[in-house]
Amino acid sequence: MTTPPAAAELFGDNLDKAIAYHESLATDGSIRGFIGPREIPRLWDRHILNCAVIGEAMDKDISVADIGSGAGLPGIPLALARPDLKITLIEPLLKRSVYLDEVVELLGLDNVTVIRGRAEEKAVRKQVGHVDVVTSRAVAPLGRLAGWSLPLAKIGGRMIAMKGSSVTEEIERDDKDIRRAGGGNIKVYTVGEKLLDEPTTLISISRER
Question: What's the mean pLDDT in 37-63?
Answer without folding.
Answer: 97
